[in-house]
Specification:
5 helices, 79% helix, 117 residues
Amino acid sequence: IGMGTVKNEVYAKFFALAPAGQDFFKQSTTRLHFIADKIIVMTLDMYREPKKMVEDISALGLRHVGYGIPTDLFGPFVTACVQVIRSLTEDDQAEEAFRWSLSLISRILCRVINEGS
């Protein structure tokens, strides 16, 4: 399957888990694909440059405060991403590494949003 299909699947699963999420992802498909690409890069960079990533994620969290994103949408979004990754690999370690990194990113974002709002 193509990467565009994979990215669309993330949002389809997320919207099924959290229909309210559709109210916050009203961007073009191109923008949604950019966000999905950025998430993959961020999960890798969390291992490569953890200190820099915490700073970058904190800044991103402050932007999310301005967007009014409810923190209860982050869990279903992480779940959707992990479900899609699980369908692409049989490598349990790779899946767990992705889940751990994305969950950490999500927790940092939620902390910043809760503190910044």
